[in-house]
């Protein structure tokens, strides 16, 4: 049963929301535009705000649903493993020739299923970083690091957000953070060179 759950979680994660919405409603394959990425940021850039919001929600929710599969199937498998399978599916989707997104939104969906309050905390960190840096990539990496550290310290200083330490959560957060940094390696180069794209609403937006 656990193998079936992991397979279903991977298939859910593999749904290329940006690609399908672009082709169905805009007659565009977003892989041929912008960064060539299939995720939320490139969808916003290529297809616009409405499509970007839909893809963001879809990518978050597929992570949430995939993470919840062990509960839905009454399995004793830790729910976070379903989230990991979805993240792998999002990054290497079978429905898009194994070329996917950077897993930030799907990782957020995993947190939403694990702990809604912790998800809100993580989302707040990301938004604050985005307002300060105006860069989605840098904000994603900073938030990933802060969230990983928070899995260790929050149970002791702010248990309302995260009541108890869970080594599986810390291990998963560490692995996802490393994965996010790896997927943003090209962005890191652009950040160093001062050529990274900036969102138009940040406090440090590109003029």
Protein described:
69% of the residues lie in helices and 0% in strands. It has helices at residues 2-13, 17-25, 40-47, 49-72, 79-91, 104-114, 116-133, 136-157, 167-183, 185-193. Helix 3 (40-47) runs antiparallel to helix 4 (49-72). The mean pLDDT is 91.
Helical content, roughly?
A: 55-70%
Rg, please? Answer: 17 Å
The sequence of SSEs as H and E is HHHHHHHHHH
Question: Could you say which overall geometry the principal axes of the C-alpha atoms support?
Answer: globular
Give a count of the beta strands, DSSP E runs of length 2 or more: 0
Arithmetic mean pLDDT: 91
Question: What is the distance, rounded to the nearest whole angstrom, between the alpha carbons of the first and last residues?
Answer: 54 Å
Q: What class, by secondary structure content?
A: mainly alpha
Low-confidence stretches: none
Can you give me a brief rundown of this structure?
By secondary structure, the chain is mainly α.
Task: Give keywords.
207 residues, mainly alpha, globular
Task: Please outline the helices and strands.
Blueprint: H1 2-13, H2 17-25, H3 40-47, H4 49-72, H5 79-91, H6 104-114, H7 116-133, H8 136-157, H9 167-183, H10 185-193
Helix pairs in contact: 1-4, 1-5, 2-4, 3-4, 4-5, 4-6, 5-6, 5-9, 6-7, 7-8, 8-9
């Amino acid at each position: 049963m656990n193998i079936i759950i992991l397979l279903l979680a991977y298939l859910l994660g593999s749904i290329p929301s940006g690609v399908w919405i672009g082709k169905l409603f805009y007659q565009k394959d977003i892989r041929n535009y912008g960064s060539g990425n299939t995720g939320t940021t490139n969808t916003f850039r290529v297809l616009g705000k409405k499509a970007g919001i839909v893809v963001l929600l879809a990518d978050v929710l597929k992570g949430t649903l995939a993470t919840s599969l062990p509960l839905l199937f009454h399995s004793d498998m830790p729910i976070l493993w379903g989230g990991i399978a979805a993240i792998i599916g999002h990054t290497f989707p079978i429905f898009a020739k194994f070329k996917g997104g950077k897993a930030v939104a799907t990782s957020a969906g995993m947190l939403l299923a694990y702990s809604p309050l912790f998800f809100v905390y993580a989302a707040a960190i990301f938004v604050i970083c985005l307002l300060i840096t105006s860069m989605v990539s840098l904000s994603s990496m900073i938030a990933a690091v802060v969230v990983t550290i928070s899995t260790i310290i929050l149970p002791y200083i702010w248990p309302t957000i995260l009541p108890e330490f869970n080594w599986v959560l810390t291990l998963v957060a560490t692995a996802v953070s490393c994965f996010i940094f790896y997927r943003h390696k090209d962005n890191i180069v652009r950040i160093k060179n001062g050529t990274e794209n900036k969102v138009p609403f940040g406090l440090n937006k590109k003029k």
